[in-house]
Amino acid sequence: MGYAEEQQSTLWGFENSQYTSLIKASEELLAKKVAEFKRNR
């Protein structure tokens, strides 16, 4: 999935760059969960 940081959110009315930290945190959490799942299989 992608998005343009320089654009304004059509849903929330602020710059998409505000999503960057949220997306990064979500990606890190997902990677951690996947690694944990693979270890416990």
Q: Which secondary structure elements does this structure contain, and how are they paired or packed?
A:
Blueprint (H helix, E strand, L loop, with lengths): L19 H20 L2
Question: What can you tell me about this protein's structure?
Answer:
The chain has 1 helix and no strands. It is rod-shaped. The chain has a domain at 15-40. With 41 residues, it is mainly alpha-helical. Helices cover 49% and strands 0% of the residues.
What are the main properties of this structure?
41 residues, mainly alpha, 49% helix
Outline:
The protein has 41 residues and is an all-alpha fold. Helices cover 49% and strands 0% of the residues.
Task: Report mean pLDDT, rounded to a whole number.
Answer: 85
Question: Which secondary-structure class do the elements indicate?
Answer: mainly alpha
Morphology: rod-shaped
Total number of β-strand segments?
0
